[in-house]
């Protein structure tokens, strides 16, 4: 009898533990989902029924593609403003990278131009190897869409296909006839490379953080100070190089590794991660925010990234903010953000020589 009781209790505990783990996994899975940016959403937006081909997407590695898109995505379809993309990653041929690369890169290319008229969107890969999110269209007409695991991919397919005229290292591709583009006055609100501001978890956090902020400057400060200090021990962010945790990163391109929402979970990263999560959180609040990046010299061995933010919307005054250096140099955090009276331009531009802001001038970029 006593033995049966023990077995019964063990069974109850096992069922309870399994239920809790399942609920945690489900919460984690659903927390990664994206929404359509509310200001951009329209009643008849997304993929349209007419103009859809019967053929599926093109896979450049026809034997076994590492990215498989859901079957509802066709070789050709029409869309207004945005489109949902989902699928699964097959790591069987590239197991070495499974724990390092956590995103699928989506390139939207107008006129198949290699350098201009391209937009990039990063979709997080969850623990079930699935990804789902939205891409947005800035221009009407024919848009080519390419899906990559990463640009410095060791397996370069580089093959032409009758549906795509250029050589590509992409895993999959398809065409979208864009009937209506995102209005230009709303384009600053949509996601960009690594800045997945449509992530539900990230947007909920921003809403909770800024609910008591009475104006724009207070919101900008609240988000900045969250990344510098955080309010709880298990929420604090750390500046930590990838290669300190994953040796495989040495010599690889860091910019294609994590999205802002993933840094929100891991709580560590380098300068571009801090700049990207600040951009995502400010963009989710409705503000214009850009990333500024550059290198010390043509070797591109040492670089840095920070932000500029426009709190008025007229683009006359862009305020400088460096959340990563604010996090590293907490005692001077107000000097690293042009949001405070204590901001010191000379300090901001010249501190940390020779690795100071003004020195990162080679290949300087200012972009959303």
Which features characterize this protein?
four-stranded antiparallel sheet, 25% helix, C8orf32 fold, alpha+beta, Immunoglobulin-like, seven-stranded mixed sheet, 18 strands, 2 domains, 8 helices
In short:
With 368 residues, the chain is an alpha+beta fold. It has helices spanning 2-31, 200-210, 216-228, 242-245, 260-266, 271-284, 323-328, 345-350, and strands at 46-48, 58-59, 67-69, 76-80, 82-89, 103-110, 118-124, 130-136, 141-148, 159-161, 164-168, 172-180, 238-239, 268-269, 288-295, 303-310, 319-321, 362-367. The protein is globular.
Mind explaining what this structure looks like?
The protein has 368 residues and is an alpha+beta fold. The protein folds into two domains: 46-186, Immunoglobulins (Immunoglobulin-like, Sandwich); 191-367, Roll (C8orf32 fold). Helix content is 25%, strand content 26%. The protein contains eight helices and 18 strands. It has helices spanning 2-31, 200-210, 216-228, 242-245, 260-266, 271-284, 323-328, 345-350, and strands spanning 46-48, 58-59, 67-69, 76-80, 82-89, 103-110, 118-124, 130-136, 141-148, 159-161, 164-168, 172-180, 238-239, 268-269, 288-295, 303-310, 319-321, 362-367. The strands form five sheets. Strands 1, 2, 4, 6, 7, 9 and 12 form a seven-stranded mixed β-sheet that branches. A four-stranded antiparallel β-sheet has the order 17-16-15-18, with helices on one face. A hairpin with an 8-residue loop joins strand 16 (303-310) and strand 17. The protein is globular and about 60 Å long. Mean pLDDT is 82; it is low at 17-31 and 152-165.
């Amino acid at each position: 009898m006593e033995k049966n009781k023990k077995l019964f209790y063990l069974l109850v505990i096992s069922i309870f533990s399994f239920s809790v783990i399942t609920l945690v996994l489900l919460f984690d899975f659903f927390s990664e989902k994206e929404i359509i940016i509310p200001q951009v959403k329209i009643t008849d937006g997304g993929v349209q029924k007419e103009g859809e081909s019967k053929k599926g997407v093109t896979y450049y590695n026809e034997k076994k593609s590492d990215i498989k898109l859901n079957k509802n995505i066709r070789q050709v379809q029409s869309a207004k403003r945005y489109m949902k993309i989902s699928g699964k990653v097959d790591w069987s041929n590239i197991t070495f990278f499974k724990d390092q690369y956590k995103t699928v890169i989506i390139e939207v290319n107008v006129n198949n131009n290699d350098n201009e008229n391209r937009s990039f969107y990063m979709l997080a890969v969850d623990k079930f190897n699935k990804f789902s999110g939205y891409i947005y269209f800035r221009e009407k007409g024919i848009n080519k869409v390419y899906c990559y695991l990463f640009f410095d991919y060791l397996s370069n397919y580089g093959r032409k296909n009758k549906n795509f005229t250029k050589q590509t290292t992409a895993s999959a591709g398809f065409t979208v006839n864009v009937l209506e583009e995102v209005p230009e006055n709303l384009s600053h609100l949509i996601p960009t490379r690594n800045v997945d501001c449509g992530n539900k978890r990230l947007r909920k956090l921003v809403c909770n953080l800024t609910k008591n902020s009475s104006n724009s400057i207070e919101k900008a400060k609240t988000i900045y100070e969250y990344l510098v200090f955080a309010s709880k021990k298990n929420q604090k962010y750390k500046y930590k190089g990838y290669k300190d945790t994953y040796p495989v990163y040495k010599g690889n391109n860091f910019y294609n590794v994590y999205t802002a929402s993933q840094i929100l979970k891991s709580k560590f990263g380098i300068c571009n991660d801090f700049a990207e999560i600040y951009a995502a959180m400010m963009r989710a609040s409705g503000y214009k925010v850009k990333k500024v990046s550059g290198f010390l010299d043509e070797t591109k061995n040492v670089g840095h990234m920070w932000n500029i933010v426009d709190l008025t919307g007229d683009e006359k005054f862009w305020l400088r903010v460096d959340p990563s250096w604010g996090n590293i140099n907490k005692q001077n955090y107000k000097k690293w953000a042009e949001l405070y009276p204590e901001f010191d331009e000379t300090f901001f531009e010249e501190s940390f020589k020779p690795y100071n802001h003004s020195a990162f001038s080679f290949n300087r970029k200012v972009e959303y």
